[in-house]
Nitrate/nitrite transporter (Flavihumibacter solisilvae), 439 residues
Amino acid sequence: MSTIHTHSNHLPLERLKIFSLRGVQMRTFHITWLTFFVCFFAWFGIAPLMPLVSEQLHLTKAQKGNIGIAAVSATILARLIVGRLCDIWGPRKTYTALLVICSLPVMLIGLSNSYLSFLIFRLAIGVIGASFVLTQYHTSVMFASNIKGTANAVTGGWGNTGGGATQIIMPLIAAGMVTMGWVSNENSWRVAMIIPGFLLLVMAFIYFRYTKDTPAGNLDELPADPKAKKENTFLVALKDYRTWVLTIAYAACFGVEITVDNYAATFFHDDYKASLIIAGLLASIFGWINVFARALGGIVSDKVGKRFGFGGKLNLLTVLLLLEGLGIICFAKAGALGMAIVLMFFFGLCLKMANGATYSMVPFINPKAIGSVAGIVGAGGNIGAMLIGFLFKAYPYADAFFYLGGSVFAVGVIVFVFKLASKEAAAVELSTDTEAARA
């Protein structure tokens, strides 16, 4: 009896025990989402402080647009690389290395004294966005197929709330330092950014010390599988067109999310004349929706998948994208601050549920290439954000949101057309054996 119990502890969990820290699976689950929260906090820590940066460095609207694009551009390549490294090195070593490396530009961005130097630091900080791929990979191998979508969505959603928390906390940290007399108001952003950088180093230690690559142990502790090593998982993922459908969909949901994280505070500050702290507070509403919305998308997607299969999951994603697009269009035309907040909540809810629904499908594209598929789809989110950045650079923010809403609606139509045209989509098996899940 004890042998069976020990062996079961080495398998992916079939149930998500939110309030438990027992077992490597749940311990990794909680460390993973908390680490991702800190990564998101650090990634967008400078966003609510941009009015201070802009004033001190005399940034133009075009330059601020370039900075917004830089914030998400480096993440594209980083996610592709990290996805492949997950399949080779495992998530534990890869995540630890990422956290240590990215802590440097986060802490050192305060040394910027010109537009160019600030742009370079902002580009480097964007690499930390690859943390999402690691989070989704690690959750996927720790949980069984019946609960993967829910587990992925919860870790992703709770981690993404870091983008909301930073909108409130970073202005308060900067203001607190000024109140304490430690630094002048105009330089407060420089010193404040040391805090998220230090937190990244703390999480690097915790991640390396307390997580494992798989439920059965770290990759270098497991018996080698020569056949798996010879297979290029990145090419396997690239050749599957379903990977690209999810990539486009993710560009239209997560790509929009990090755009809003980047521009919301400035939009409310400039267009609705909100103060720096109030603008950050309003923008944070969008981030805090992640506490439940992304998880809700994964939960609903898992339930739909049990009844209607992979095709049902695609139908759900289609509906969410269409509603998101309509919501953004209305948000752009809101006119009044109160209505804008309500509409931001609505399209944010649809958007974050779409995030969860997308990654509830990722582990099933190819169980032997989870890292690479997750990396490509994740990179799609940042490609979307980069392209949207050019939109926000070229047009007033209200107009940019209007065009963005139309684009998201069009992507929803594309996903629907793919579903109608593809017999393979309906035939995908929503189950993976334990060995495949570990691969």
Summary: The chain has one domain: 23-216+233-438.
